[in-house]
Design brief:
Helices cover 30% and strands 28% of the residues. The chain is α/β, with parallel strands linked by helices. It folds into 2 domains: 3-145, ph1033 like fold (Roll); 182-322, Trna Endonuclease, Chain: A, domain 1. The strands form 3 sheets. Strands 1, 2, 3, 4, 5, 6 and 7 form a 7-stranded mixed sheet that branches. The mean pLDDT is 93.
């Protein structure tokens, strides 16, 4: 299961928890929709969700009960927005009447216990996925703020979509086969991770998060944690950063993912460089990227994995091949 923080106004939040449904915005821009869809398709049944209500705090706790779906039936009062990228949820564990204050979240960020989202960029997006450890920290604060047990109240009349549709994953390409919008390449990966696919390529993974902010004003396309249970104990043993490019991957793209890699080694891996693997995905690779990769193997005894993608237009799917 994963943990997600959803952004909502106070008015929309009340409607969401009353009806047990959440919707992400739809834009007139296909590029922006691709990014919204990539976040929504990373949500699956059984995941936990919190709500961040601006100027109030973070509320919890609910569990996702449906796969994401597309639905334009009017729910919210916004005249210009139907929020059609949706999923349903129900309250779990207990009722937490007092939210977690923003100041508490900022304290956790200062201590390095929360790092995969920040409230500066949160206002530009509907939802953020956080790591399991971060989700547990937020639940801990909810329990601290609400020490008296109050049973969770079931939703009396939960929203049931009349004609839900699959959220469109548009792998539109140019005449050379390159995907038009990087967000849809990201969406394909997030849907694949949500469906527990790609383990033969990536290995076992637990958290999978896209658009992760870093300390140098760049967002990492995809971040994964690798956790293996040993005798009922979960062992965190690796991190993966993935950079996606719909076109030819350049030397500058390679340098960018190495910056992400070094940042993760310092921030999460306590200096253990073998604990972080980097993967570059692109339509093709510049010769200088291939040469740099080989030189790095010789000098540092560490590589960057290079993966080509190809679009299967008949199946609306993507094929991957390691270089």
């Amino acid at each position: 299961m994963s943990y997600h923080i959803l952004l909502a106004s106070k008015e929309n939040f009340e409607i969401c928890i009353k009806k047990g449904v959440y919707g992400a915005v739809k834009s007139s821009s296909d590029k922006l929709n691709a990014e919204v869809i990539s976040c929504t398709l990373g949500i699956k049944q059984g995941d936990f969700i919190f709500f961040y209500v601006k100027n109030i705090g973070i509320y919890g706790l609910w569990r996702v009960t449906t796969p994401p779906f597309y639905d334009e039936e009017k729910i919210w009062q916004d005249k210009n927005q139907k929020y059609p990228f949706r999923f349903c949820f129900e309250p779990v564990i207990r009722k937490f009447t007092k939210p977690v204050a923003l100041s508490d979240i900022l304290d956790l960020r200062d201590k390095g216990k929360i790092w995969t989202f920040d409230f500066g960029s949160l206002t530009m997006k509907n939802q953020y996925t956080v790591t399991t450890d971060e989700g547990k920290e937020i639940i801990r604060l909810l329990l601290r703020n609400n020490p008296v047990f109050i049973p969770a109240e079931q939703i009396k009349n939960p929203y049931k979509p009349k004609e839900p549709k699959f959220i469109p994953l548009l792998l539109e390409c140019d005449n050379q086969g390159r995907i038009k919008y990087e967000g849809f390449l990201n969406a394909w990966f997030m849907k694949s991770f949500s469906d527990n696919k790609l383990k033969d390529l990536i290995g076992d993974y637990k958290d999978f998060i896209n658009y992760v902010p870093t300390s140098f004003n760049k967002v990492m396309d995809i971040f994964l944690t690798h956790v293996t249970p040993i005798d009922s104990v979960e062992i965190l043993h690796k991190f993966t950063c993935i950079e996606l490019k719909t076109d030819i991957v350049t030397e500058e793209n390679l340098k960018q993912i190495i910056r992400y890699e070094n940042w993760l080694i310092r921030k999460l891996a306590d200096g253990d460089s073998e604990m972080v693997q980097s993967i570059l995905v692109g339509f093709d690779f510049d010769e200088r990227v291939l040469n740099y990769r080989e030189k790095r193997k010789l000098i540092e005894e560490k590589s960057v994995r290079l993966i080509k993608y190809r679009v299967d237009r008949e199946r609306n799917d993507i094929l991957l091949e390691e270089v």
